[in-house]
Amino acid sequence: MRKLVPTFIPHRYRNAARVVVFGVLSVLFVGSRYECPVCGRGSRGWVSLGFPNLVCPHCAAFERQRLLLLYLRNELEIATRPLTMLHFAPERCLMRSFERFPNLTYIGGDLDPPRGAVKLDITNIELGSDTVDVVICSHVLEHVSEDAQAMRELRRVLRPGGRALIMGPVDYDRPQTYEDPTIINPRARVAAFGQSDHVRLYGADFDQRLRAAGFEVDANPYAEQLPSDDVVRHGLDPHEIIYVCT
To answer: Is residue 4 within 8 Å of residue 47, measured between CB atoms?
Structure first.
């Protein structure tokens, strides 16, 4: 969490600083009004970072991560079924949750992997075809220059009957995805794509791009299927879409 752990702190001390920050937040937000499905802990509220993300004060899970875990538990039964899961750019909070399930064969991968993950290039995944049951790719593709190749690779490694859960920032008012490889200045990328390390802004054609890679796609507003009390209690965004790809 870059905004909760100041960037002037040297990288080698970031983990220690994170422990201190969230130790303090856990005390300040003690309560039971809300419950994070990722860490299972209650709190009196969520931490706001000045943009529409409500962060768990105990494990730092965002709304999208809490929604994703609920989908995995409820719809894929990841707590009980023997599954092989491939998780790109794994978030620390979700990694810890997944590693608690002895039935899961869990692979976390990234070009610059955190502890507990392995080095993997999403555009050239060093796994055999049809080898994983579940792929998680959340807020990754907007960072990848060759996103069509990445999508094809995700489709290649997914077993028949498996599911790839893909999420990302999408501007549904924009009919087509906007990308311009000549925009490399960080400030210009913020203005064009919303973040300095994004290389495109996906539009309403995002599902079409996934289908072009060979997926069948269900754009699932999963929070709408949950009881409204659960949406509030777990701090979910009712408009978040999970692209369930098979």
So the answer is: yes
